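lol ok so funny story. i was supposed to be doing the assay writeup but got distracted and ended up predicting the structure for this chain instead. priorities right. anyway since i did it might as well share w the group, maybe its usefull for someone
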Amino acid sequence: MALPRVAVLCGTGMSILADELSALGDSTTSNLLIHSEWGPVQASLVSFTVGEVLVIDRHQSEEAIRAPPHEIEHRANVYAASSCKPDLVMSINSVGSMIEDLPPGTVGVTSDVLDLALRPWTFHDDNAVHTDRTSPFDASAMTICCTSLETTQGSAPSGVVVAQCVGPQFESIAEIDALERLGAHAVGMTLGPESRLLSETGTPHVSLVCSSNWAAGREPGDPSAQIDHHSVEAIASTMRLHVTECLLSLLGT
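and the output, tada:
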């Protein structure tokens, strides 16, 4: 029987995730270059005795820079992730939190996406294909991640609705107010396109949200506090342990 394989799409604060997985021991790592119609994608395949994890940095580019969120070629990344025939794709998304249960430094589990961005993302530009998105995330994987998070961080914020914004600027207070009224609990810049494209592949999908900052106007005691990306990156990096444990749980360890 084939070993389980999880493909990971990650970004802010997760740039050394593959290295940390490799350092766990009893593993081997291969660097891959996956070709797609939308460009090449670099990936790291970390193989354990219990399964494999394919890690893709969504912000990679062909130059020595990190692609800003509005310039990410999500079709290339999702194609690369799904082409390795994974049992599951995990999106790890840095978000700004609007709710008390998801303070900065906390990992939560996404239940739905509020994506009203104007730019369409699809693999089907020439012939209309309409894909169901009633339940965009895999229930079994969500449960496994919640159980892992209960153990590692003492809580597992779930049922998180993530609003999609295009960036690269952070949102205004008025925008956050509007998104909250529409039902969002957190806001990010990458999950919307990934969830849309993965729905077209039919590959099971789960999203872990890493609360890296309070959304604009939501800082307790200081609603005028500004958001700094360097601080966001630093806080996001502190959550890799919880993410790693979720991955190992999904592999059955």
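The longest helix spans residues 139-152. The mean pLDDT is 93.
back to the writeup now i swear
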